[in-house]
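__Record contents__

***
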Amino acid sequence: MKTIGGSIFVRNAVEWDYCIKEAVLSLVPFCDEVIVGDAQSTDGTLDILKEIESNEANVRVLENLPWECAKDNARLRLLANMVKNELKTDWHFMLQADEAVHESSIPAIYDLADNTKGITGALVRRWNLWDNFEQYVGLTSKFRPCGDCIIRLGELQWDAIGDAEGLYCKGPWEDMTGKIFIFHYGFLRNNLINKVLDTQSWFFEDKNIDARYVEMHKEGNVFQSEKVIPKSELVDLPMPHPAIMSEWIAARRNRKTRT
């Protein structure tokens, strides 16, 4: 059987409310090796990662990755590939720190990695949750905040591209969007407005920062989701959340406001 590795990097998961523990643990059940990179966190994130490493035999933490490795969004690709290049497996699943792989995906992941058809990568489905924990931005909506059909599973030779949204798979790939699922919780975090403004300040080098988030920050720093995406564009989730996310979701589901 071919081996599968998982990779993920993060910076300041505590400050920015990433579900980093859950993200890593969603990779653990099907990965022979999981590499987690910490990009010079200053808020206790490394302590969380080291605790996971001490409890999970297939998890290894890389410390002190250079956060200022690029001025713009290229740093995300560079960091993703620094972590991926530490793997020694045949295949690779790239995950972000505000996501989780659904456990129902595991049989399909195994089947694809062991294929005999020459397939070298796979498109997977990402549910981009928005406004609440029951809905995502519709797959045909013009307001989609990021990719919902992306290559995240591939042979180890394929690198991250762009801002590490996906892998650049040059070989034959297969559409597994009906079998492999990532849940994206990035827009349901606490401290969302400040995170968006912080990210855009270096993403675009202080140019083209979204005026809607600037306005919300000035109006009390409470996230008003409909200023960005109308509720009419939201669709009910067709499946339950990953089991690993239950406690993280419960701690945030009933809050009255999200900053």
Notes: The radius of gyration is 18 Å. The first helix runs from residue 20 to 27.
